[in-house]
Give the backbone structure.
Amino acid sequence: MRPDTPADHTTEAERLLRTAEQYPGDREPLYLQAAAHRELAGDRPGATALYDALLTGAPADPHLIRALKAANLWEYGHEAEARAIIDGVRRAKPPEATAWEVAAETLEAHDELEAAEATLTEATALLVTSPDELPHATRSLLSTRHRIRRMLALPHDDGDDLADRLHTAAVPLDELHDPKRLWSLGSSDPAELQAEITRLRSELGAYRTALSRPFPVAVLHWPEPELDELLAAYPELEAEYPTYRAHLTDIEASLRELAQAGTPNLGIVRATVPSYEAFAASESARPSNADLLPQYATTLAARARASAWPPPRGAACWCGSGATYGECHGAE
């Protein structure tokens, strides 16, 4: 059942923590979800405890965790500590957009618009290196920066122009981010109200795109040692994976075919034998059952284990070869 009350959120947080004990490889995303539910339940100290528990280990994205912790701390009276953490995140210059955006939106939520704009400008200067091949999170960063600069009545710069070019909805960003839009909600003019409905639908479409992560279609990638171990334990799966090279070729071919058919938000999830066996046990099924493989991929994607496909051509290829995607599986 979808959580709707503080008690429901507390229950869901506890369920996620129990799941993390069963699947330690997924501990980080599960703890982050549990922390979010604790925040929604009003248990902000409890959420901070989960962020701290993650930071005492070796998290995959420590900058994001620190930014989320700062946002949570500020909400229950620890402004000085939150500011110090955000300053630390900015100095660290994280290579991913999400930590930057959380830090900037925290500043914005507390009427620190100039600081939020400065944070986003630092982030875009660092992350926007190839404007034509930006990941979704960086595009979102540009859009957020555009909105805050609009609220500050700042003139368009190159970052705003790029955000405009990347925006695909029918309603332009300047109109979506117009600070005067709220006034139209009090209008009695049907034309103005209809225009506002159109703008809100456009915004909702953008949010749906953002929330469509995890990926609706994710493909399994078994690294070569894992595939060897899988086939040694379950030779029945050799029909699915005749050779490692064929496995890599099938992944790229399948994703390109899906992309040509218009399927959005494609992803790749890295599989491991222990994780797969644990999943099979949770489904009361045998790992040798090939029908279990797509379910396993979907489950991993739902736990935020998927990487977006295709990666930028200059980024490392998804196969782990060490070559760039454009030189490896992204080659025409």
In short: Residues 190-211 form the longest helix (22 residues).
